[in-house]
Amino acid sequence: MVTPNNRRVHARKVVRADATVRLGDATTREVRTWDLGMDGISVVSPRPIAPGTRCTLTLRLPDGSGTELVMAARAVWCSLLGPEGFKVGLVFGPLDAPVHDALARFLA
Question: What average pLDDT is seen over the chain?
């Protein structure tokens, strides 16, 4: 169930893993995941990522399978978390069928 204050379409799963965000200008940021769902992800970044920024997220699923997912995304919010950096919300673009299926299996 989605609460009135939660605009997410899908539930999120707490996932702490390393990932890479490549910004539209080819800048690459090493980030740490916070939570993951079928529609998006929250990450902790050492530098802010402005809302509206289009990027590509690369994430190796932390399930021992070695599956690497590459997903188009867009930043929708960014806030200072503290000394750790900035918490950034990303929504995914359309997912390719293999990426969608691997993500759905992982989140099940």
Answer: 91
Nearest to 54 by CA among 99, 91, 95, 103: 91
The answer to whether the CB of 59 falls within 8 A of the CB of 29 is no
> Is residue 6 very low, low, confident or very high in pLDDT (cuts 50, 70, 90)?
very low
Model-level pTM greater than 0.85?
A: yes
Buried b (16+ CB within 10 A) or exposed e, 42-54: bbbbeeebeeebe
The domain that contains 57 carries what CATH number? 2.40.10.220
Question: Which pLDDT tens digit goes with each residue over 31-71?
Answer: 999 999 999 999 999 999 999 999 999 999 998 888 999 99
- Whole-angstrom Cα distance, residue 39 to residue 50? 19
Task: Specify if 6 maps to a domain.
Answer: no
Our count of domains for the chain comes to: 1
Summarize pLDDT for 30-41 with one digit per residue, the tens: 999 999 999 999
Residue 8, domain member (yes or no): no
